[in-house]
Amino acid sequence: MGFALNHFLHFLLLCLSLLLNHQSSSNSTATLGIEPSELRALMELKSSLDPEGRVLSSWAVGSDPCGFEGVTWNEHGKVANISLQGKGLIGTILPSVSGLRWLSGLYLHYNAFGGEVPRELASLTGLLDLYLNINNLSGTIPEEIGTMASLQVLQHCYNQLTWSIPEAYPPSWVC
Ligand SMILES: *[C@@H]1O[C@H](CO)[C@@H](O)[C@H](O)[C@H]1NC(C)=O
Ligand SMILES: *[C@@H]1O[C@H](CO)[C@@H](O)[C@H](O)[C@H]1NC(C)=O
Ligand SMILES: *[C@@H]1O[C@H](CO)[C@@H](O)[C@H](O)[C@H]1NC(C)=O
After folding, report:
1. Which of 5, 81, 83 to mutate to test the pocket of ligand 2 (most atoms within 8 A of CB)?
2. Mean pLDDT per segment of 10 residues, for the chain of length 175 residues?
3. CA–CA dist 55, 105 (Å, integer)
4. Nearest CA to ligand 3 atom 1
5. What is the pTM of this model?
6. CB 95 near ligand 3, within 6 Å
7. Which N-terminal residues, if any, form the signal peptide (predicted)?
């Protein structure tokens, strides 16, 4: 409880400082306190997750990052969570998602994502939650994802995915 509140306050403070920075200068990307590489990775991801640009228009360089739909920042100004469940997205998940190195939760369920699950996801050493269920993903879930030490929950069912390492299937990896 205390931890959650503390976390929330951190987030509020971050948003406030980002907002103040934003208002005090016209050169937003340089002053937002967000690393250009985080922003670049997000923009690259945006074009794959939402190629038609219908849902993620709030993800824009120069906009207030606290208003980016479904994006939660940690207290260091890094992307912590991406929550885009049930948004009607029809894109794909590019390997560039691994550029968001502090990602702890990726919630992409209840959409219509196609293509394969990028093996580069396995390089996200802080990833705890990966929700891919109820999409149109195909191919094999990369073996590397089966060896991720951090991953606590992997929801993958209701796709066209196959799974090559049933022996290593931890109980928390569910539908
Ligand atoms: C904003 O800052 C960046 C990096 O410092 C610089 O390259 C760019 O020219 C600046 N843009 C404006 C409009 O001042
Ligand atoms: C990311 O999402 C998880 C699960 O909802 C939550 O516990 C965690 O606090 C979130 N992280 C941030 C920085 O909001
Ligand atoms: C699902 O993906 C397959 C290709 O793997 C494609 O032919 C099909 O149209 C997709 N279905 C939907 C509902 O997007």
Report:
1. 81
2. 60 59 44 77 94 92 90 92 96 93 97 96 95 95 86 91 66 64
3. 19
4. 136
5. 0.77
6. no
7. 1-26
